[in-house]
Write a structure and sequence with these properties.
- Helix content is 49%, strand content 13%.
- It contains 15 helices and ten strands.
- It has helices at residues 10-19, 37-42, 63-67, 82-91, 115-122, 137-141, 155-165, 179-201, 206-226, 237-248, 253-262, 267-274, 280-294, 299-309, 314-322, and strands at 2-6, 25-29, 44-45, 51-52, 57-60, 72-75, 99-102, 127-132, 146-151, 171-176.
- α8 (179-201) crosses α14 (299-309), α13 (280-294) crosses α14 (299-309) and α14 runs antiparallel to α15.
- The protein starts with a strand and ends in a 10-residue tail after the last helix.
- The relative contact order is 0.10.
Length: 332
């Protein structure tokens, strides 16, 4: 059995570290310009996380060689690069029976397509599954246990991925047939995680955080259900589970973005300081565009969009949210 992981960032390298013993062969692919000399020569990286891969892991920027004979291809590239990687997979001769598992959480701009839609657009006949859940890379590297979902319309494919990516006592996987719900739960929660970091940065307290998570969850469910998700999915691992983890942990890049926004820093400087992708930044824009098109109320997400892309101050955002017109608490 061979596993190929596309993307040598934090989560991609962590998955290569975590899953090595599950497979006879493991290959970690990255674009030439993104592959550090340390990772290429020593199978090691020290920033932003310390990761040492086993000798059996092959590290390469040769796509055709990377995917040759792979049973599972795990895509962990930034959402903005997913279409390009799929085009590269197509040119490199990916076979329809090979299972492509997407682990990237976001929405493509300007198309507003989910990652599964992007993949199907380029590779319409590909066996496809989605991996999503509360998976902070640093905690996984520390050996802390977590659980996640493998979503696929084909149950047999979902079970195959579940069985081969499950790591006893560390990484427990559940199957789910609601691809839309699992994808959107994992993607939209990143926007609320920025809001949580913002609230922490302003030291607004635990009452505020409880209110924020609840109202943020209402927005996630409201939008996702309109896009075809089963509402119960959003209260599972890829929705509520991922939301709690990313909103409560400073290990979350999106949480960090929010905390720095609360200090009055500008997004370009924040992303430069962060040194890695925070998917919620672009997802906030995509989410607000979707909501506007479908006439869905998402005040919290709109506030984060303003914090990211305008000169509004943190206190102005807080006052704007707290002094909205009074209303009934809807179900979602």
């Amino acid at each position: 059995m061979k596993l190929t992981i596309l993307g040598a960032g934090c989560w991609g390298a962590t998955l290569a570290w975590l899953l090595t013993d599950n497979f006879d062969e493991v290959c970690l692919w990255s674009r030439e310009q993104d592959l550090s000399e340390d990772m290429r020569n020593n199978k090691h990286c020290s920033y932003p996380l310390e990761i040492q891969l086993q000798d059996k892991v092959q590290v390469t920027s040769d796509m055709p060689q990377a995917i040759k004979d792979a049973d599972i291809i795990l895509s962990v590239v930034a959402t903005s690069g997913t279409r390009e990687v799929c085009e590269n997979l197509k040119k490199s001769g990916i076979k329809s029976e090979q299972i492509l598992v997407n682990a990237s959480k976001g929405i493509e701009l300007p198309s507003l397509m989910t990652m599964s839609d992007v993949i199907k657009d380029v590779l319409p006949n590909q066996r496809l599954a989605i991996l999503s859940g509360p998976t902070l890379a640093k905690e996984v590297l520390m050996g802390c246990p977590t659980a996640a979902c493998v979503a696929c319309e084909d149950h047999e494919t979902a079970v195959f991925v579940q069985e081969h990516l499950n790591v006893p006592s560390k990484f427990r996987l559940y199957t789910n047939s609601d691809v839309v719900g699992v994808e959107l739960g994992g993607s939209l929660k990143n926007v609320i995680a920025i809001a949580a970091g913002f609230a922490d940065g302003m030291k607004l307290g635990d009452n505020c955080m409880g209110s924020l998570l609840t109202r943020g969850m209402a927005e996630i469910v409201r939008v996702s259900v309109r896009l075809g998700a089963n509402p119960s999915t959003l209260y599972g691992l890829s929705g509520m589970g991922d939301l709690i983890a990313t909103c409560s942990s400073p290990l979350s890049r999106n949480h960090t973005v929010g905390a720095l926004l609360a200090q009055g820093k500008k997004i370009d400087n924040i992303l430069s300081e962060l040194g890695s992708v925070a998917e919620g930044v672009k997802t906030a824009k995509a989410l607000c565009e979707i909501a506007k098109k479908m006439n869905i109320e998402v005040p919290l997400s709109e506030a984060i969009y303003e914090a990211l892309y305008t000169d509004i101050t943190p206190m102005e955002i807080l006052n704007k949210l707290m002094n909205r017109k009074l209303k009934e608490e809807e179900k979602y």
